[in-house]
Design goal:
Keywords: Chaperone, Membrane, Transmembrane, Transmembrane helix. This is Chaperone protein dnaJ 50. By secondary structure, this protein is mainly alpha-helical. Among the domains are: about 35 residues, no CATH class; about 55 residues. About 65% of the residues lie in helices and about 0% in strands. The chain is built from 8 helices and no strands. The longest helix is centred in the middle third of the chain and has 21 residues.
Length: about 140
Amino acid sequence: LEFERTGGIASKKKGHKQADKKVEEEVSDEVELQIHGVEKPSVWRLYGVQFILLPYSIGKVLTWEICWFWRYRVKKLPYAWEDACYLTQTSLKISANTWKNIDESRKEDLVTRRLWEKSNMERYIAETRKESKRRR
């Protein structure tokens, strides 16, 4: 549509098309295709490299688990925003990419509902079911 509006393609009724290379390049630069599941190959994805980095990866996960346990189980601190987002994302079973695409107001609403707690999650599921029945 943008290409037709800028005059890159003449009217379909006339039957002939004019391709303005400058406009075509501008439009193609603006349009970015997001193809999920197909990524550029990386050396870090090779099994041999991942096997070599396994001790480092295990250490990193263990450090994260210990810090989490210390902060939120022993000290009983309130959850930080990133940690509350992580808990909400995992309780809703949403992928990281999907979570990134949710607008900030929706994220804030979901986090403030404290959906990682079982009773709050059950209440949220009941509300969403009621809303979906109402829309039908």
